[in-house]
Amino acid sequence: MISTTCSTTEMVTQGKLQISNSDNVEDKSSGGLGCFGWILVLISLIIVAGTFPITVFMCVKIVKEYERAVIFRLGRITDRKPKGPGLFFVLPCTDSFVKVDLRTISFDIPPQEILTKDSVTVAVDGVVYFRIHCPISSVANVSNAHTSTRLLAQTTLRNVLGTKNLAELLSDREGISHSMQEALDDATDAWGIKVERVEIKDVKLPQQLQRAMAAEAEASREARAKIIAAEGEMKASRALKEASLVIAESPSALQLRYLQSLNSIAAEKNSTIIFPLPIDMLQGFMQRK
């Protein structure tokens, strides 16, 4: 049994190796231009050499520092690497090229109507910064890299925010931006695109929800104000109790407090000063009568 299993495993391994070798051979053969293709290239070279002074302007191309050129020769990408920056040579009859901009590009995500996890409808927009790091992949793997990235950013924004509730959406914008950047970067890596930054610009709430949140915030502020006022009254009553105990121990302290009150009243303009008379003095006059 052991020998049978080993032989079966060896046969499967050999089959896989044969398949991989045949795939490599097919790739190598498909990467060539073929006999007819080389004939066309030679004819194009002969035409260029025969009309040399004129074809120089058609064969020499220039790309800028931030650009790269992907050259197609008879429909196939040559050398599997882009050309540039600077001068490069193309054949006028068999070659065509596509310029790719490597600078960072930004675009706005249109406002998206999103239903959050706690069933609240909000309108969210954002901005995405990306650049092309592999010109060949951006040309060969996707028809329009910029448009595809824009559409994918809108879909990713909906998918990510659909798993968040309103409180997380308003408080954790940095985390949401980071998760969106990772999702976009993984999806666009096959297109030769690097997503550098994603930012949430604005979150628009419905008018009714804004009024409800404003009323809730006002009620919470009023509640905190009442609690603070009650705590102040409690502390003031304790201080007054301690002051009354001190005044009760010394009768002259009440007279000093009375004089301080008169001084504070007299400091104000157009004030009326009332002099209270002690009841003990009035009782003495009443007894004489």
TrEMBL record:
Keywords: Membrane, Transmembrane, Transmembrane helix. Residues 58-217 form the Band domain. It is found in: Membrane. It comes from the Eukaryota. SUPFAM superfamilies: Band 7/SPFH domain (SSF117892). The chain crosses the membrane at residues 36-63. Its main location: membrane. One of its GO terms (cellular component) is plasma membrane. Belongs to the band 7/mec-2 family. This is Stomatin (EPB72)-like 3a.
